[in-house]
């Protein structure tokens, strides 16, 4: 019975993250151990020419005990928050308690000519602890396009390659969480620094 309840909880929380695609491997989504919650936000800058609007960003999170990789991707623009400079969405998912790591971040964009794929360094080292009946908040990840310069017109444009700014907007994201999951608003919503993460590693390198 516990396996069935957890499975449907994962579907419920992932499905409510508008514009966010979440993949939790079966060994984690069907676990019968205690569970906690992971939350954060994925977004893009919207100012030309560094806009990240056409870049799909994927967080790759590794479950330390099993080496299983969870992916969280912003696949469409359905913003939960929006300003003149950026927009983004909250993500929330149910996970077995334990240690996790932000392993890498990958990107898919377009430089105006072709689709380009890039990623951060692997083994980023951002350690995350999921505790029972608690929401672990890991902050916001805002993608910008690296800038290229046209050799013909000497103008700047988005290159399709990306970099991420990571910080914490606890009050905003807690408010969005409470609106989306009123049945969980009584849980502790804890901001957890990503232990060992070097922000300089969040700039992408070219895959193709």
Quick summary:
This protein is mainly β and 208 residues long. The chain contains 3 helices and 13 strands. It has helices at 2-15, 26-29, 170-180, and strands spanning 20-23, 35-45, 56-63, 69-74, 81-82, 86-96, 98-110, 115-119, 126-130, 134-149, 156-167, 188-191, 205-206.
Describe the protein's architecture and organization:
This protein is mainly beta. The protein contains three helices and 13 strands. The strands form two sheets. Strands 1, 3, 4, 7, 8, 9 and 13 form a seven-stranded antiparallel β-sheet that branches. Strand 10 (134-149) and strand 11 (156-167) form a beta hairpin. The protein is globular.
* Total DSSP E strands: 13
The general outline is: globular
Number of helices, counting only DSSP H or I runs of 4 residues or more: 3
User: Poorly predicted ranges (pLDDT <50, ≥5 residues)?
Assistant: 1-12
**Separation of the first and last Cα atoms:** 45 Å
**By helix and strand content, what is the structural category?**
mainly beta
Mean pLDDT: 84
Strand content: over 45%
- In this structure, how is the largest beta sheet organized? 7 strands, antiparallel
Helix content: 10-25%
What is Rg?
Answer: 17 Å
State the order of secondary-structure elements, H for helix, E for strand. Answer: HEHEEEEEEEEEEHEE
